[in-house]
Fold this protein.
Amino acid sequence: MNEIPSQSAKLIVLSVDGLRPDIYRAPEMRRRFPNLNELEKAGASAESVETVYPSTTYPAHATIVTGVAPRAHGIYSHLASLDPTEKARPWCWFAAALRAPALWDVARASRRRTAALSWPVSAGAGIDFNIPEIWDPAAPDPHKDFDTPARHSTPGLFGAVTKVLAPLLGKADPDQLRGEAALHLWKHHRPDLLLVHFVWYDARAHAFGPTSDEALKALESADRAIGKIRDAISRDPATTLVVLSDHGFVPVEKEAAPLVPFAKHGLFARGADGSLALRRLGAVSAGGSVAVYWLEQPTADDRRRLGAAVNELQAAGAVKEILDRRRLEEIDADPDAEMMLEAAPGFSFSDRLEGPAIDEAPKDRGTHGYLPSNPGMAASFIAVGPEIAPGKNLGSVSLKQIAPTLAQIMGLPGDILATEEKPLTLK
């Protein structure tokens, strides 16, 4: 157990979305990410962290704070809507969707002060100082929608942070802004728990590929932000810094659009204007996988049509594996899905409704969402602080072990969490 008294131990958790451990650990990369490598030497770190299925941001971040798999916490994908024909699909922004206690609930039960910055599935959470990740899905440019996160933030907090960041707006990338906002929350509100979500590497890795220069420059920016936060807390002997990620990343060569053959085989209706409309079939694309749902009892003909559409995708080489309900239960994935299709290596699934079923020149050059066993899907974990052994190699661990480990670091009662996982031994 962490021997620091529970009321003095503080914790900062920095999530670098999409960070694969082999990227910053590669000998030729170490000079580009000095802070990550210095933290690894100073603390305990995992060689790899097995993520969840699908290996995407929202299910994984929910697991990070609950210690349970998607089947238990209820966040099965990023989307809250199963209707693939909906023009502006809402995401799983709200903490009320969680069906398991989160780390902030444990902290609140112990009267500890909490803060979060752009943490997935945290809107409306019992967090003292919270700016959640949320936007209007119908906005022309969600990245410029400031009204929605301001409305769902702790009253007055968004405006106060925006004022601090004003000199950097238009000049700094998203992770630089989040780093400065995190420092503001830390200095002015002194939370016992601070959760921060960095997103720029993920965005650039999608657009250009996980080891592209554009993505690596974004990761350099996150590394600098992490270094500034580390320096700011270096004189506080009771604070532990954890840097982790939710999933890994792999390059993409081709895009498959399952909704195109689904529509071709009559699984959607047509509106009066000729646009596709919902019938019985729901679907959610996760990049490396796509989940398929029957929203109403299917007929034998519906099942035949779905089988024909899936066969078409298989014939095109886009499908590596079909996961049925039994297989999804085995891996603690979505209990409501009829099936999930696992993309073949080099393929990514999109939610595109029109055009060719297979695009040989996809817009995105990197993705995730595949089975956790897929090479490149491993997440990261580094912890530096009191009672943590420097240079300790934790080997391969599970994402489900992180929440009980974080609770233990803070001296919080782990029995409030629903997880059955044991904390990592960091000494």
